[in-house]
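Action item from last week, closing it out:
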Amino acid sequence: MIHREDHEVSGFLYADGHRIRNGEGRELLLRGVGLGSWLLPEGYMWRFPERGDRPRRIEAMITELIGPEDAEVFWETYYDRYVAEADIARIAEEGFNSVRIPINARYILGGEGDGACWHEEHLQRLDRVIGWCRDYRIYAILDLHGAPGGQTGTNIDDSAQDLPELFTDERNKQLTVAIWRMLAERYKDEWIVAGYDLLNEPLPEWFAEHNDQVMPLYREIIAAIREVDARHMIILEGVHWATDWSIFEEKPGNELPDQNLMLQFHKYWNNPDTESIQKYLDAREQLNVPLFMGEGGENNKDWYAGAFRLFEDHGISWNFWTWKKLDTDNSPCSIVLPQGWHKLVSYLEGGAKPERVEAQAILDEYLLNLSLEHCIYHADVVRSLFRRLPVRIPAIFYGYKGSGVSFGRAPGRQAAAGISYREGDGMDFRFVEGNRTAPNFQHGRGESWQPEERLCVELAEGDWVAYTFTVRDSERLSPQDWRESLEPEGSKDWRESRGSQDSLALELRVLMGGPENELLVKLDGQEIGRVNGCGQDWQTRRIISGGRLEAGSHELTVSTAAGSATIEWLDLR
């Protein structure tokens, strides 16, 4: 069994001002993944249309196709295979220190009735996964993703009528309180449980008339939890997909309801820059609480390399969404699409109903493919999140710690005209081609940037930018891996000259003009090479550092020693 060798994951977590500390008093950031679609199956992760967009609709389809008895067998097998011990072991091995576990209330309730009757076998499955988290030393966050009646009134909470009936039916509120009291009683002594995420993404803006009910419900839930559990951290999300924190504003009678508390926001499909999260940074200062970016992802790997560095540089805990889904390349685990899956999609869209035997075969193949050993594993996704070698970093994603630390402008240089990205930095961002005036970071299926969407940064003489990256000994490529990762055409000399695998191999995509323009590259403060212009076209230039590159964090600094240069990306290996 693999255990984390450090002691970062140790003892009950607690909030201490802006920071989270473990049981030894050591400060840490949560760096985790969400176990989306496990206990609350989400239709988009199954590649299903609207008629299969939430658990109850998927359940209905499967029952229609194979009957209730076989459907029950399907679901119990699904829950066992979607997240197994091998998944938790791999998550820990990759260096994550936490998982967020989305829970559907119907999963732990004994039925759809009014009372609080618990499904003990399902709770035991949750116990088992939490036990694996303890074994492999990764914290578990319990997330009520689908509250009774639904807290959002959309597919993501398994809403029955597309209404937020948690806030329109007092019975649903009381059942939600009872669920949290039960979970707190069950896990009050379980230190590996990091905290309780009370409601996922309550109330989108079109249901804002119920916003004034959220904090009172939070208070009621917390009071019930504290009756049985005084130690676990409470995690609260804002309204409107966790992005509107107006409900936390300080005013008489609206003080934060607990001392051991962390506030959570989510971030998708927008600029990975400080301006985009400034309101949360301001709230951290005003309310003196730690921040948690509890969901972010569903984009391409270039965006990951920027967004998750943003969180790191601002001391924000984070959780990537999501660990596993069907037929994808922008999550770590891709479930292989079963033969005939399109027939299930067609049926949901009003097409022919597959015969029972055929439907069973398709679903059986899906269940087989769920296991980690049968998934396609995208290690490059994880490397982008951690900026772990080998990794590509778009040049616009230099560090976020501010002027003089992560970047610098030549004295007296005027701020460039903005393109609605990192406007406070005053750096010169441009599009590689085309006439766009604003960036597009909406690539929910992981699509690469189109040519007209690609951005670059232009450095004048005296400007510089810095990029943090990490090295793990276990992640260093063998010479064979290195050769296979490069395009074969025109790369032979580069491959053969790489030298020791303990050195840094760097490629820069640059536009530099004539030889009077010169870039200076430093690794951890030491010069490793210079690049001079040699034409008016974009070129890929290469530098190899000497000496051993130790495991841990490193900084690469690129500055313009003379003239000017434009950089699109850096590829580090």
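Closing note: Residues 1-5, 475-501 have pLDDT under 50 and may be disordered.
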